[in-house]
Amino acid sequence: MVLMAFTQTLHLLRPSKCPGFAYAWLEIVSHRVFIGRMLAITPQQKGWSMYSMLLADLFKFLAPFLRNAELAKPLTMLYKGTLRVLLVLLHDFPEFLCEYHYGFCDVIPPNCIQMRNLILSAFPRNMRLPDPFTPNLKVDMLPEITVSPKIHTTVANLIQPQDFKKNLDSYLKNRTPVTFLSDMRTYLQQVSSEPGMRYNMSVMNALVLYVGMQAIAQIHSKGLTPSMSTIAHSAHMDIFQNLGVDLDTEGKDYLPQFVLFSRYLFLNAIANQLRYPNSHTHYFSCTLLHLFAEANTEAIQEQITRVLLERLIVNRPHPWGLLITFIELIKNPSFKFWSHEFVKCAPEIEKLFESVARSCMVQKVSGGREGEA
């Protein structure tokens, strides 16, 4: 009860309501005693949901400034403090970040790559990550690949309006109504005067994860595991391929120093599931590679590469699933990665790709509890 009272008080005094109290608020929320009480000492993880709400309050306050790259010195200090809190959580409470990653990534702007990587790099402490740089690593043979991760969000409830959810379920079951694929983009759009918010990122994230979870369940019900062959030719892949093609540059919003495409948001939603070894990571890794292989234009392949590359060129840590996906993309000759025009469009771009590829081949895995310094 005492912790609940503290949480409710801090929620009422959150930075968006009391910006002048933001530094002191963060100092309280990040204090070792408070974090310990919320995440370690309180039994049955009863403090986890309360602490996740406070972190979401912090992310929501920073989001408009980060989205528009408007960080004055006071906000820069608050942002750095937020990264330090995430580093502490990554090191001491990785399971908390694992289970609440979806809600956090849902409110973090797409251009906050480092912040999102810190969250997505978390993995359970009782797990030993396979080295993604092992030659001929058979990801589909790992026992963890069949295990579904815990997610403390009811994704189905986030797909709104209700008729969209109803039509989605109907299409996944029997591919009707036939107009569903052409109507999807309309459901994903929203009326907003705020730059970069033409498309509802929350609904996009929920749609991608929900469709993926349904696909995994269907594949497992047949006694199979996700692979490049088992994920193809399904209603689920129809939806993803349609989004990849239909969400094109017509849906772009111009932001200072950052251009958001609706397709970019869709690919980001997929990349947000590339984490530690689990069924979601495996399925969405296969999905991203399948979309690359089956793309009807090089623009889609270039954007998939961008989503992966921009998450790799920032400082460590890098999520395990991100590394195995990019390594497979550049090493597997069936994808013909090095023959694409966007790789050779300029000498400096080609050198960048070669540098990242070289580092991927020689570095050792940076797990969720390495690279904090």
What does this structure look like?
There is one protein chain. The chain has helices spanning 2-12, 22-29, 32-41, 48-67, 73-92, 94-107, 113-120, 162-174, 180-188, 201-221, 235-246, 262-271, 279-294, 298-312, 320-331, 347-362; strands at 253-255, 258-260. It is mostly helical. The chain is globular. GO terms for molecular function: molecular adaptor activity.
Which strand order spans the largest sheet, edge to edge or round the barrel?
1-2
How many extended strands? 2
Q: What percent of the residues sit in helical stretches (DSSP H or I)?
A: 55-70%
The helix-and-strand class reads mainly alpha
Name the helix and strand elements from N-terminus to C-terminus, one letter apiece.
HHHHHHHHHHHEEHHHHH
Average of per-residue pLDDT values: 86
Instruction: Show unreliable segments.
Output: 249-260, 363-373
Strand content: under 5%
Computed over alpha carbons, the radius of gyration is 21 Å
